[in-house]
Amino acid sequence: MHAKILKPTLKNRELISTQLKKGGIIGIPTETVYGLAANAFDEKALLKIFKVKKRPLFDPLIVHVSSRKFNKKSNFLVCLAEMNLIDIERISKMAALRLRALMKNFWPGPMTLVMPKSHFVPDLVTGGLDTVGIRMPRHPIAQKLLCEVPFPLAAPSANRFGRISPTSAQDVYQELGRRIPFILDGGRCEVGVESTVLYITPRGDLILLRAGGVSVREIELKLKVKVRKNNGIKNLHSPGMLKSHYSPRKPLQILRKPILKLKTFGWGRIGILAFQGNADKISSHIGRSACIKVLSPKGNVEEMARNFFSYLRYLDAQKIDLILSEPCPRKTGLYHAIGERLQKASQR
Ligand code: TXA
Ligand code: MG
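YS: structure for the whole thing
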């Protein structure tokens, strides 16, 4: 099988909705990374996702919902309950208040909210947990498609398990082109790192399960509550958050300091991932040939996030023995999301 990359015309979207209704799986664009989508209520289709990605069954999938039924005045939780996704009875008043505020402020967008699941949601979606992660993507093509099918779409990132996430239709082709029939082309992803995953406890506390496209600071500013880290909270885990993830095939080593502050650089053919600055300057500083990618020459963090997976993928495909990356320059905001992914990509 060789996947066809389809432009998002009405005719092609019709073809894709028909495939999804028949239980097919499709590569789709979102603003974060490309997803591998299936009907969230179709167990046979869900199983195909796990098989194609070689993903362990305990790793839960994120459910993507259409924005059609929601407007700023609607009660988001009631809408999700009507879609048979959540169990509203198990959500306390405080949790409901916070969830509504999060949805009003950050949906559609790169934020996944983990809530008590309805019994209609298949265990395959939730990895057997009694919660479900839901997000409303803001990519216009993803939204059009979600309006055109009568069910929400479960979609993990469209890469083989543990590998670099795809941020273009061509990346999905490289990852899964021989295993899926269609990829819907929505251009390069605008955000470039996955959604922020937040768990809302029965008491309404907010716990960060994965740093991503929306920063902790933005959430704290809007809601005026602290977001807690997922440290040492009993029985709480986000099964997909393994130590090694987003991995290139080539070994990746994180340097102690920015390139221009270092003098020696290992042997062999190297590729360099820099966060900012000028590639020519870096090249003359290291005084030998290397393949250099600079995430954002001017130091713009959004640009760094947008290019991160794509440049890592590029370096991985070069004739080199080792990828050296600068350390992530900061820890807050989008840097947090990039730094976490870089760290995991360097683990074997
Ligand atoms: O931006 C994104 O979130 C992308 C696009 C395609 O939407 N999707 C994505 O999916 O990153 P995936 O499968 O690569 O990551 C999903 C992760 C799981 O591995 C897990 O860490 C967390 O989300 N998750 C999902 N449902 C959960 C639940 N019920 N409880 C705890 N964590 C959950
Ligand atoms: Mg993933």
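YS: worth flagging: The longest strand covers residues 111-116.
IM: good catch. Also The radius of gyration is 20 Å.
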